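Work Package 4 report. The design task specified in the project plan requires that, given a folded chain encoded as C-alpha cells, an amino acid be chosen for each position. We show below one input record used in the internal validation round.
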C-alpha cells in the first residue's frame, strides 16, 4: 500500500502544548484544554478549518480568540506493513480467548 493519510494537530508555540479542541480553549496555551501529550487530531483539513473558524465567532468573545501563537502541525501516516491480530495480542490472551 502506498496511500498516505495526513492528520493535523494544533500546538501553542510558547508552551508547546497541544489543543484538545473545543471553542473555549484559552489562547495562552494553558488550562484544561491544552495538554503536554496527546491532544485532538483532525483527520481532514476541512474539519481543522471548521475548528479554527469557530474561534473567530461570537462564541469566542467579541473579537474571537487570539490564535497568533498557534501553529498547525501536519502528520503524514504512510502505510508500511500489515500484521495479523495474533501477532499483536499476547499469546496468553489468545489462549484465554480460545478456551472460553
Amino acid at each position: 500500500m502506498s496511500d498516505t493519510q495526513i492528520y493535523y494537530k494544533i500546538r501553542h508555540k510558547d508552551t508547546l502544548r497541544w489543543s484538545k479542541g473545543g471553542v473555549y480553549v484559552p489562547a495562552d496555551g494553558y488550562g484544561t484544554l491544552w495538554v503536554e501529550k496527546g491532544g485532538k487530531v483532525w483527520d481532514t483539513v476541512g474539519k481543522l478549518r471548521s475548528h479554527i473558524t469557530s474561534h473567530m465567532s461570537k462564541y469566542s468573545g467579541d473579537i474571537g480568540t487570539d490564535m497568533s501563537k498557534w501553529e498547525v502541525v501536519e502528520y503524514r501516516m504512510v502505510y508500511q506493513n500489515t500484521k495479523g491480530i495474533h501477532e499483536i495480542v499476547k499469546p496468553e490472551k489468545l489462549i484465554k480467548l480460545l478456551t472460553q
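The first helix runs from residue 45 to 54. Validation will be extended to a larger panel in the next phase.
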